[in-house]
Design goal:
By secondary structure, this protein is mostly beta strands. The protein has a 7-stranded antiparallel beta sheet with strand order 17-18-19-20-21-22-23, with no helix packed on it. Strands 42, 43, 44, 45, 46, 47 and 48 form a 7-stranded mixed beta sheet that branches. Strands 1, 36, 38, 40 and 41 form a 5-stranded mixed beta sheet that branches. The radius of gyration is 46 Å and the shape is flat. The N terminus is likely disordered.
């Protein structure tokens, strides 16, 4: 693709817009709002939010509202719901349901980060009590202000993108996913941002750069552990970053290990805390935490503009869980003992609400009386940097014009618009411009550029002599007071590398009827690898002219990468942009269309793997095409599923490709660019249609054989295939009487194969282990004991010629006395066996009174008499009274001609086969 060409290379510089009033307009509560553009907050009446807590707003650099949200619904600057602006996964009762982050170096793209309210009802096992389940955790959605006629909208494919802040393999963590806290800090590079949240024992910092949101966070595990057991209440409370970007303060309203409630149904109170951590804005790491407040019920937290003071609001609950108001505390972050620097500023009957730093460097507080649910005023800390009561806190000072505030106020990136400076043009050789981006009135400044040089100009310009990182320091004097130094590490880059070898992008002229007119559609991205020369972090954009490239400061109006040249050998311009976005190089590109060589190789066949698809080996096909078409070795072949993709060199196929029958398109290239194009068909060949598995039976016996077949399905015939059994036989069928597993591979004339598996099981005749005959009872029973009883059917042929039907159960009930035949039949049709059964039966009583009825007792059945050896009769004391034979009349109830009394008598019957059975009967007189 490369060819030498006259090179035009130019270096240009541009910078970021000044960030000043992005936090000038607030919307919160029940249609409440404040406008800080005049320097004094003024109540607004045009807001549409109805929210108890979470809310977020963003304005442009001049303080004009762009859009705002409660974490669920997004309103544009006309206070209309954006077309795709509903259904975000925040929650109006999440402490910080949303925060808005601008995409670096792009004035049109913003990200709304949302956190849900983690409810226990959505985490238990009862779906009937779910409330907007599941708990959604952390997400982000993109707002593009170019959409909807400049009013903005959320692209569907950039909505509710999930970010993981939990262990996906832990079922309990996945039920809650995240806390209600979120904050943001400007990155140490002065361009990117960090979005930070917390869950259980870890902070998660996500980087937002020119490339967008990095979904892999920097995770910092700390000694602060928030129990999962009572997480709904434990997740409540604010997370804030200091304006200088070096501190984080986190509020946990409670730290309950479970949801156990007190006698009045209230959750346990006064278990929460506040922690203070260090934050590294260059790495995203959180560490060195200390607990500055314990055993309380805190809610809001905020840093002063100079990051010298920290303020906390906390509710005042008694032992019965009743709220009596709240307190506002101040901490001196410059003290050697921050914990002991706590100072009570105010205590009232208002609930502890949010604290939010504004662009006027004052801190505003929300809240309402404990016996109400909202209020039409908010409070203010007028001088947050001063010690103790000198901070000049005024309760209910700011009028909301009858609009209502509850608990929440909108969070912002305070490090962006308060404690910061900005710069532009950071390419080596250019004058880097440093400027202040806050709205305050600055008396004087001292810049230290980190290379030994300084400046007192408010708008300062400095040219660095070598690339690298420099720690720049700004000291401002405001109203006669010298402020704390602001530090930022900036990077001075070498200009994007270009090459002395110009680039000639070559495309085959295949897309019209004139293959020699020099016109074609080009995929400009195919030039990127050459232009980057190993600089993987450089972004490349293409333009028709140098002036267009220079004027497009945010690279939003570049050419579509798929571009058709308007004249042969047209020159366009590649803009190579550094990651900082503030400098770039321009290099010219020639678009050259070659006459095309048509490649038409033979069909590629592959056997189906099901669903009329097959896996095609394109790597092997390359070798076949080289040999078939006698191609030079320097020609590289790539394959595509459509002609358009092949023409443009986009979406190439891999080494293997699974598809149904279709046409594949070829793009052939050599060192000069496009060599030719072509196509070939891929054809899915059918595999033999066979029954893939079968279970068969062979009956026991050396003369019994099973015939195993290949399972060919009509209309195919056995002569259509070849066969190979795992017995090495090659016939369509085989005969065997050996139990086991058999398989046969069937191959058709296309070489496609199928394998049939057959399991052959040996079916045996029954072998009786024992017979349990429970006779001489009211209901005689026979139980057949044998192995694998389910493989057989059972019936009895009685001595009178009648029989039971066959049954699957080897247990028979209510069998009459006599000599019967037991039949056991193999269910596979492999034969039957029979066994003789002798079932005894005797009367339960007799009445020897000489009336000719029941005068004698004996075992019933003439047929069984031949099987009996003897019958003995005993009295209840076990004394032998009489021994009789079954051939006799039986016993007449006497002994030595003396009548025995009415009573129960016992007997035993011994059979000639050795079986002995016992029973009893009654003598009645």
């Amino acid at each position: 693709m490369k060819k030498k060409l006259l090179l035009l290379v130019m270096i240009f510089f541009f910078g970021n817009s000044f960030a000043q009033k992005e936090a000038a307009v607030w919307y919160f509560g029940d249609k409440a709002g404040l406008d800080f553009n005049s320097g004094t907050p003024v109540g607004l009446l045009n807001g549409k939010l109805i929210t108890r807590e979470g809310c977020a707003s963003i304005s442009d650099k001049n303080g004009n509202i762009l859009f705002y949200t409660d974490g669920s619904t997004v309103y544009n600057k006309l206070h209309q719901i954006m077309p795709n602006g509903t259904g975000l996964l925040g929650h109006v009762s999440s402490t910080q349901s949303a925060i808005i982050i601008p995409k670096p170096n792009n004035p049109y793209i913003y990200y709304i980060f949302t956190v849900d309210e983690p409810l226990e009802e959505n985490a238990d096992d009862n779906p009937l009590n779910d409330q907007d389940a599941p708990n959604n955790g952390l997400h982000y959605s993109q707002v593009d202000l170019r959409l909807n006629n400049g009013l903005g909208d959320i692209p569907s494919n950039e909505k509710n993108i999930h970010l993981i802040t939990y262990n996906p393999n832990n079922n309990e963590e996945t039920k809650f996913k995240c806390s209600e806290k979120i904050t943001a800090v400007q990155h140490g590079d002065g361009v990117s941002f960090w979005v930070i949240t917390h869950f259980l024992d870890s902070f998660y910092a996500f980087k937002i750069s020119n490339a967008g949101v990095n979904k892999t966070p920097v995770k910092s595990t700390t000694p602060l552990i928030v129990p999962l057991g009572g997480y709904h209440s434990n997740a409540i409370g604010y997370l804030k970053s200091s304006p200088n970007g070096s501190k984080l303060a986190i509020v946990n309203s409670s730290l309950n290990p479970n949801n156990e409630r007190g006698p009045k149904g209230n959750l346990k109170k006064n278990t929460g805390n506040v922690w203070l951590f260090n934050f590294d804005a260059s790495t995203g790491i959180v560490n060195n935490g200390i607990a500055i407040l314990n055993g309380s019920n805190p809610y809001g937290v905020e840093f002063s503009a100079k990051s010298k003071k920290l303020y906390v609001t906390t509710n005042l609950f008694d032992s019965e869980g009743i709220n009596h108001g709240s307190s506002l505390f101040q901490y001196n972050l410059k003290s050697n003992n921050i914990i002991n620097s706590k100072t009570e500023i105010e205590t009232s009957n208002f609930v502890a609400g949010a604290l939010q730093l504004a662009i006027d460097e004052k801190i505003y507080r929300s809240g309402y009386p404990v016996l109400q649910d909202g209020y039409d005023k908010i409070s203010v800390i007028n001088n947050p940097e001063l010690d103790g009561l000198n901070c000049n806190y005024l309760q209910n000072q700011i009028d909301l014009k009858n609009r209502i505030v509850h608990l929440g106020l909108p969070p912002f990136i305070t490090s962006l618009f308060l404690y910061s400076f900005n710069y532009e043009r950071n390419c080596l050789g250019q004058a880097t411009h440093f400027y202040i981006n806050s709205t305050e009135t600055v008396d004087s400044v001292v810049w230290n550029f980190g290379d030994g040089t300084t400046s007192n100009n408010k708008d300062a310009y400095h040219t660095y002599l070598s690339p690298g990182d420099y720690k720049v320091t700004l000291i401002k004097t405001v109203n006669g007071e010298e402020r704390e130094p602001i530090e930022k590490t900036i990077t001075i880059y070498n200009s994007p590398k270009t090459t002395s070898t110009p680039y000639k992008l070559i495309q085959c002229d295949t897309q019209d009827n004139n293959s020699t007119d020099g016109l074609a559609s080009f995929n400009l991205d195919l030039a990127n690898d050459f232009l980057r020369t190993g600089q993987t972090d450089i972004e490349i954009y293409y333009y028709k002219s140098i002036s267009e490239a220079n004027e497009d400061k945010n690279n939003l109006n570049a050419l579509n990468p798929i571009y058709r040249n308007s004249i042969p050998n047209e020159i366009i311009y590649a803009k190579l942009v550094l990651p900082s976005g503030s400098c770039y190089s321009i290099q010219n590109i020639m678009l050259h269309a070659n006459p095309n060589i048509t490649l038409l190789p033979s069909v590629l066949h592959a056997c189906t793997n099901g669903n009329n698809k097959a896996e095609f080996d394109l790597e092997n096909k390359t070798l076949q095409i080289r040999n078939e078409l006698n191609l030079p070795q320097n020609v590289i072949l790539t394959y595509y599923s459509s002609k358009n993709d092949a023409d443009l060199g986009i979406n190439p196929l891999g080494k293997t490709y699974t598809s149904s029958s279709k046409t594949i398109f070829i793009r052939a290239e050599n060192e000069d660019g496009c060599f030719g194009t072509g196509q070939f068909d891929i054809n899915v060949d059918p595999s033999p249609s066979v029954a893939l598995s079968e279970n068969k039976i062979v009956c026991e016996g050396s003369n019994n054989f099973a015939v195993l077949d290949a399972g060919i399905i009509f209309p195919a015939t056995e002569n259509d295939f070849t066969y190979l059994w795992n017995t090495n036989e090659t016939s369509p069928t085989i005969r065997t009487n050996k139990e086991g597993k058999y398989n046969v591979t069937i191959t058709n004339n296309l070489g496609c194969k199928a394998t049939r598996n057959i399991t052959l099981t040996l079916s045996k005749l029954a072998r009786i282990n024992s017979l349990q005959i429970k006779d001489l009872q009211k209901n005689n029973q026979i139980i057949v004991i044998l192995d694998n009883a389910a493989a057989y059917r059972y019936k009895i042929i009685f001595e009178d010629g009648t029989s039971t039907p066959f049954q699957n159960n080897p247990i028979f009930e209510n069998i009459p006395g006599g000599i019967h035949q037991l039949i056991i039949e193999n269910i596979d049709g492999c034969g039957q066996i029979n066994s003789e059964l002798v079932v005894l039966e005797a009367p339960l009583f007799f009445t020897p009174n000489g009336d000719g009825y029941n005068d004698f007792w004996n075992v019933k059945g003439s047929s069984v008499s031949l099987t009996i050896q003897n019958i003995r009769i005993f009295n209840r004391f076990g004394q032998l009274i009489k021994e009789i034979t079954p051939q006799s009349q039986g016993w007449d109830g006497t002994i030595n001609e003396n009548q025995l009394p009415s009573d129960d008598y016992w007997f035993s019957v011994k059979l000639k086969d050795g079986r002995e059975t016992k029973g009893h009967f009654s003598l009645k007189r």
